[in-house]
Structure formats: C-alpha cells, structure tokens
Amino acid sequence: MFGVVSYQGDFQKHVAALRSLGETVRAVRAPEDLEGLMGLVIPGGESTTIGTLMSRFGLLQHLRARIEDGLAVMGTCAGAILLAREIERSTQERIGSLDMTVRRNAYGRQIDSFEARLDIPAIGAAPFEGVFIRAPMITGVGPDVEVLSRFEDSPVLVRRGRLLALTFHPELTGDTRIHRFFVESARRSA
Prior knowledge:
Strand content: 25-35%
Radius of gyration: 15 Å
Shape: globular
Structural class: alpha/beta
Order of helices and strands: EHEEHHEHEEEEEEEEH
Number of strands: 12
Number of domains: 1
CATH superfamily: Class I glutamine amidotransferase (GATase) domain
CATH topology: Rossmann fold
C-alpha cells in the first residue's frame, strides 16, 4: 500500500497516478495513516504550509522515524523541499532526511512556470516532459545522493536509497514512468 500526504497541493493527481498502476492508495494526514505503507508521496504545493500542517498533526516526527526504518518516500516540488536537509534562507519545518540543499522558487513566480524535456535514463530512453511550477532548485547534494536528471546543469531528480526528490510535477503529465519507478524501487527495498 502507498500513501499520499493529503493536506494541500495536487495530491489527487498522485493518487490517480498510483492507482492507474494498480496500487492501493491511502490519504495520509496523521501518524496512524503511515501504518502498513510501503511508500509515501509528498506532493507539490506550498512547502511551508505542508510542513506546518505535518508538524501540527504530529506527522513530521513520525515520518522521520519511518524514513529511518526504511519507508520509501518520493517528494515532488514542495515535497522535495521538505525532504531537503538544507533550505537556503529558510528555517521552515522540514523532514530533513535527504542530504541536499534547495532554493525555493528558484525559477521565479507562478507566471514563470515552464515545461522542459528531461533525459532520465533510469526510466527509459524517451524524454520526460517535466512541469516546473514555482520550482525549487537543488543547489547541492551530498556524496551519497545520486543525480538521475539535470536541467541546465542543476539536478532536478535525485535519489538516496529509498528517497526520491524531484523539483518538477510528474503527476501533471499523464506519464506514469516516474511513479512506476518509485513503486518498483519501494517494492525492491521492502
């Protein structure tokens, strides 16, 4: 079973993508919702709001512990920010389990959103259409973090063990290859 943090953002699109792959999916809002999960998606949205709500409802601390115990997690856009150990010029609530540094809204405001064709060999030869909406930029990664894709020399998809972070929105494309990659990775490591 997979979960999707469901406070804010386009979490329903992640639910739909996972269900289209035949997975059972649960909305996650409280610590008890983590029980029995093989993997968890943290969607895009507003990272400060999602982090504050995760803290307020007691999910943040429990999620850190579950990650330490091996829970697979995929963070997209705001979810990637929340997974980062360091957020430039910010003290906001975060999970902090992934050794990377991010810069919020690095490409500009909502009006500056864009799409870009990304080469991601881990999911196949065909390019993936990345949707970047008020996207963060990964400005640094630790030595144990693998860069799976770049845009203009900046990492946009990284992995460390069971953690996957993306600065774009795969749920908005109709292309489920990244969700499939996450599911398969979670299953292999379970």
